[in-house]
Write a structure and sequence with these properties.
The chain has 165 residues and is of the alpha+beta class. The protein contains 3 helices and 8 strands. GO terms for molecular function: fatty acyl-CoA hydrolase activity.
Length: 165
């Protein structure tokens, strides 16, 4: 397992330990792949994730855009991933219902000294795009966090920071 994947999973686990929104709404999220600038994950849809039409609630897609966008920032070694300044989602078709799996790919489009821009694509088990989101985060206060690391270009090793990743 690459250092980038281990680190991104560590950041995800810290979000779960917080016992906040992520732990309550998407505890079954699994980070499956992470390389610098890209994260992939999946989630099994539970009954509490549905709207009254019995399909995945659009609000959850927005929450996942936030979380996966944050984890995309983490793939660049950011332990604290900043705060949202703008978030949006476009819904193309129903994403699924109880028992279905949704796959997400988050990409860090740009990261500067104060802002990071991410995009997240949501696909169903058939590989069809069901939604996509955009997320802007203020990261200016997090760039020098003590738990930040720097990865090699392929994400296989840690170049600086916590060597236990």
């Amino acid at each position: 397992m690459s250092a980038c994947l281990r680190y991104t999973r560590r950041v995800w686990e810290s979000l779960l330990r917080n016992q906040g929104h992520d732990a309550q709404c998407i505890p079954s999220l699994v980070v499956t792949r992470a390389v610098p600038g890209t994260v992939e994950a999946s989630i099994r849809i539970e009954k509490y994730n549905l709207n009254r039409a019995q399909s995945l609630h659009g609000g959850l897609i927005l929450s996942l855009t936030d979380t996966i966008g944050s984890l995309a920032v983490a793939t660049k070694g950011q332990y604290m991933t900043g705060v949202s300044t703008d978030i949006s989602a476009t819904f193309l078709k129903p994403a699924g219902t109880t028992g279905d799996t949704i796959f997400m790919k988050g990409t860090l489009d740009s990261m500067g000294k104060t802002l990071a821009y991410t995009r997240v694509e949501f696909t169903n088990a058939s590989g069809k795009l069901v939604a996509f989101g955009h997320h802007t985060k203020f990261i200016g206060a997090t760039l020098n966090h003590e738990k930040n690391v720097t990865f090699s270009a392929d994400g296989e090793s840690v170049l600086s920071g916590d060597e236990n990743v």
